[in-house]
Design brief:
Length: 247
């Protein structure tokens, strides 16, 4: 198999379409976090590899020639595992990731390193908080049950987080700024907590917070190993073509 795409993102799906159209023998790997993953135009495998050693074994068994890490900017472990496994086997690896968000005039961002630090950044008095950090990070907020949390996730958190004063919305983007402003107004939101995922599909909440003058607690991206990184599918396709030995 020529190419392995580590997926689970919009960008990985777009890349898979281009790779399929180019007739490259490839497979997409998903962790299996979402209940109904988007259909892929390529063969798909689901589930962890079993750490670095498991990934090395898989790459060897499938005679993988190149790997593209197109996982989410916050998926740090698989990115690290891919870097180590590919380096050990001499398999070229690149990353496809979306640009991160940067503050613009009018933004009131508080930069933090983790969900735990985000809770610390919230005020000491009870506040009304819009939480868009993904369902796996919600438990960190249980230490501050005094706040009202408007929580939005794609799939329902299982088990539900221990947040006594919570309203859960299940929804998948894109979300535009007008709708986000309306949502924040209707729930009298005063704080936004989010991860710096980047991309256009979910940036509407940032524009809405700016319009409403609300502080945003922004969880910064985790460190990842340095590998050649692209923001566009076009550039990634060029890299793939350059690194796939002619067969
Ligand atoms: P992670 O912490 O980096 O990975 C945890 C473990 O999950 C990895 O060690 C690996 O297990 C397995 N894994 C992760 N991505 C995989 C993939 N594409 N294919 C096969 N196994 C994978 O990642 P995560 O934060 O749990 O994210 C999991 C997946 O969800 C990623 O594919 C990512 O693109 C997507 N996602 C993540 C976020 C987020 O905020 N973290 C948001 C949206 C989508 P083994 O060690 O057993 O191989």
């Amino acid at each position: 198999m020529a190419l392995l795409i580590l997926g689970g993102t919009t960008e990985a799906g777009l890349l898979a379409e281009r790779v399929a159209a180019a007739g490259i023998a490839a497979e997409v790997s998903l962790a299996g976090r979402t209940k109904s993953p988007a259909r892929q135009p390529l063969p798909m495998r689901i589930g962890g590899f079993g750490g670095i050693e498991g990934l090395k074994t898989w790459l060897g068994e499938h005679r993988t020639r190149v790997v593209v890490d197109a996982t989410h900017p916050f998926a740090a472990r698989i990115a690290a595992n891919a870097a180590v496994a590919c380096a050990a086997l001499g398999v070229p690896l690149c990353r496809l990731t979306r640009l991160q968000w940067s503050p613009v005039a009018g933004d009131r961002w508080i930069d933090v390193a983790s969900a735990e630090a985000a809770v610390e950044a919230l005020p000491s008095r009870p506040a009304r908080v819009f939480l868009t950090v993904g369902r796996l990070e919600l438990d960190a907020f249980a230490v501050a049950p005094k706040h009202f949390y408007l929580v939005r996730t794609i799939d329902a958190p299982e088990p539900p987080p221990a947040l006594p004063n919570m309203r859960l919305i299940l929804d998948r983007g894109p979300f535009d700024a007008d709708a986000e402003e309306k949502l924040m107004r209707s729930h009298v939101v005063r704080w936004l907590v989010t991860k710096n995922s980047g991309g256009k599909a979910t940036s509407g909440k940032l524009a809405a917070a700016r319009r409403l003058g609300l502080p945003v607690v922004m969880i910064r991206r985790p460190e990842k190993p340095e590998v050649e990184t692209f923001q566009s599918v076009d550039d990634t396709m060029t890299w793939i073509a350059a690194h796939l030995p002619a067969s």
